[in-house]
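Schema walkthrough. Field components (list of strings):
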Amino acid sequence: MRVPTKWLREYVDISISAPELARRLTMAGTEVDAIITTGRDWEKISVGQVVDVSPHPNADRLRLTTVDVGGEQMTVVCGAPNVATGQKVAFARVGAELIDGHTGRPAILKAAKIRGVESAGMVCSEKELGLSDYHEGILVLPDDAPAGMPLSQYMGDTILDLDITPNRPDCLSVLGIAREVAALTGGTVREPPVDYKETGRPIKERAKVEIADRDLCSRYCAALIEGVQIGPSPPWMQERLLAAGVRPISNVVDITNYVMLEVGQPLHAFDFSLISDHKIIVRRARPGEVLVTLDGTERPLNNDTLVIADTKEAVAVAGLMGGAASEVTDSTTTILLESANFNPTSIRRASTALKLRTDASARFEKGLSPELAMVGVRRAVRLMLELAGGRAAEGIIDVYPGKQRQTRITVTQDRLRRVLGLQLPSSQVRQRLMSLGFGCRWVPPDRYVVRVPYWRTDVRIPDDVAEELARIIGYDELPTTALSGGIPPAQPQPSRELREKAKDILASAGMQEVITYTLTNLESLAKALPPEELNKRPPLRVANPMSQQQEYLRTTLRSSLLETLASNLRHRQGRIALFEGARVYLPRPEDLPEEVESLAGVVTGDQPDRWGQPKGEPVDLYDAKAYLDFLFDHLGLTATYHDSEDFALVPGRTAEVRLDGQSVGLVGQVHPGVAAAFDIEQDVYLFEVNLEALVPHVGRPRVHQPLSRFPTVEEDIAIIVDEGVTAAEVQAIIESFPLVQRAVLFDIYRGSPVPAGKKSLAYSIAYQSPKHTLSDTEVNRERRRILERLKGQIGAVLRS
Amino acid sequence: MTLPQLQELKEIEDKARRDLAAAPNEPAFESWRITYLGRRSRLNAILRGLASLPLEERRQVGAAANRLKSELEELLSQRQVQLHEAAVTAVVEKGRLDVTLPGRPLAIGRLHPVTQVLRDILAAFVSMGFQVFEGPEVEWDYYNFEAVRIPKDHPARDMWDTLWIDYERNGEYPMLLRTHTSPMQIRVMEQMQPPVRIVSPGKCYRHEATDPTHEWMHTQVEGLAVDEDISMADLKGTLYEFARRLFGRERRVRFRCDYFPFVEPGADMSIDCPMCKGEGCRSCGDSGWIEILGAGMVHPEVLANVGYDAERYTGFAFGLGVERVAMLRHGIEDIRLFYANDLRFLQQF
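Field assembly_structure (string):
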């Protein structure tokens, strides 16, 4: 909402600077987005008069326009369709700063030859002057604008650009802002006059209004003015409308817009002669009913939409836009003026259904007071008589099915204290509320009865009154205390805690955390998931996606991780290790999806050398496993790895990760075909951990193992086994012996003299007894037994 | 006439001094010590022979022998120290390192800047007795809107452009990607009785085009405290303390009236712009203030929606955008950098 301060001063005195006014409004809830000083940038722009318009010799659409700028005549090339001799215009000389009509950015006007004709300046549009976005034609100034006067002197102003919150439709008006200003500065509001002389025949004898659907229209006021003369509105009104960002059209239309901006009540003027039987019927649209609105659009109406109709057909969409057929034109002489109140929900639905938002609908949908309708219509009739001539019919038709009593709220002193943390003296409570137009009566011993002014439809409960007091006093004036009271019992969330811990562990292991978008597309998911998985559990789709790239909720972290990796590989060499700890969304019938905390990582590239440079040795599966080993060790867990398969991973290089026999994740090499689908040409290793599955295993404290007082005996053995035997099997056999304190694999060897198809595994074994120092005999006996069992179970032979 | 023993002592001394000067290392010192100070040394023989000497001679020879013994011991230890120092000097000279060479590279992993800032935000509240409690990102319309006083067709819905899940029930979409963390107010209060003191972080979604200050996926932290006697003063005190912990003790904080349907009175909190220190600059739109969170007293109807006694209990709630805080803290001017995940960006934090 743009509020020109020149206009604002008509209703309230302002004795403080614009920045200070903006600060006080902002603090009290009416945020001032910007203070716009029109005219400040209008150096070298003056009022000019068009004295001649002639064709351009080389272009059909352009014209040579001669402008008199206070005695000096300049000829410029002008492409505006509406330029005409005699007009007063805003004329910019070369060197003026204007908003470029195409880019919207400020630019300095340069001298130019347009199609071979020198142009010495420019006749400006509203957009070029920064007044509005209108660029379809030039700005035509009122006739009495003095040619030669600097434009800033003629129409400069300080405009407050306000961000009005949806609860305050009353502030979508200059008068509403004046009320705020008065309360915040100790001023008094001057209400605009609404009285006028009724000299015509009674309206009741000439027009009828019927509200058929009373649930959607709580009040309909209609006034009749006959003998009006359509013409331009006076300069002061045009200037105010322009400053507020509304384009002047004609006196009658301008008055309806002006009153809407002034008091907040949307109005509509019908050409009375075009209303069949002179009867207005407020009703729901009929099935299949269509209306061509003022903007020339044919609009099919659904039967939830409220229309204003005559006895034949709809003549306006209630609260949104009038119909073209009953529009006020130059030949209109009698006007039926509508000032009504419509159901906010109905207006909003109609606005959504018709994809049409207007200044009127923006006000109605927020809930205007029906009391305002009478103020609006009376104000508009007064202005019509003043500016368009004619006679007002006696009386105003006022159908008011939704009349309500004034809102009264009982507010206890205790409630105010409990909400605000402050005991306010009753004199202050009364004075502050009255400054906002509220009535306030102190009812001993402990409460107030507050009467809410009609325009404040947002104030309904005691806490609303508390806010009124707080915002006028200033939030900064309220006390500041620390929370006292009890601390609630703990609400543990183990999977969240585990996710955060795992993130710390992987980052400390040298991986980089990424956070990727949770919305993706089917193609991306299909690259990394088997088709049956997508069919079995189709991901949730967004009904109104912003793009096809972000249409589905991911069921895996794989795709986005690989995409992130690919985009980083474009500018990076060496080892990259990324992880993400986030949710995947698994659909459930008729319910919210299951949001599973997941963890996944990818690693690729070359090992770094002493200087951190790629060493020429690519990472492999065991680098990926290293991160998992590190993770599980820090979580106090021991995982086992088992041959497995996965759609996206290379067979034979894929392991399922298990804890106590239960699957908790996966690690393996990304299949080169899958990697290529993500535009990755090098080997990538991936792991995934289902954190929810991990939860039951973590948090058990490790049990302390007493240190043996007796020495360990260490010795190395190497055995030869078939290729197919896993290290884990050998390890398990060796460690099953009671005297083996630990066994560490330290070498794998293939090649002569080890026979083909076999490999040699070398272990360093530490023997120890908790009870005594081991003798050589005992160690020898244990070793012999180990070798026997290795031979018996996996056919291992000692490598000599 | 000089006693022969004194003559011998003189000889021993001369020889011992020469030998010690020539001894190059610790083993040589040891054999020197055995030769001149050992049990079988000539000096020891003289000392042992003292008893058989006449009193006057014994006194002269004994004094000289004992003096020589301690002299030799002293010489040895001096020489040992000397040699040790020489060895150290040699090592130092030979072993000079360029201490400015880089250390062997350890892989350095980092948490995402949003995670880092989120952790700091949560830590500030946790230290004030708040607990962290997360909830679902895919929500029912009821929790996201209805229960927090944003019914269907309410103009306040314009404040949250919504991504709806393609799941229809009775001709409507009841499921959505939550547009804010405020549904957690309802979920938390449904699950616990006062006193409540939680912070709830998580991803939120808006149907909006991205630009340097808008991102369709973003992270919020919701806060909620409900008890028998919580007022605006507690809201101010808690958030004031939070702002100063996160942005520094010297920060100034401002509360102004604002509107959110689920709070009354409603507020937002700004800090003085860290870039211009409140003077007004591009970052703060010349106002000198940067809004960092919305807040207010929980609306009595919201309390009633979860079955709390709104007469007995009051509370405050707040919501803040984590990316915005991260941008302020690190001087980041484009929010889209966070989820582009370019390592050149991420590894700066």
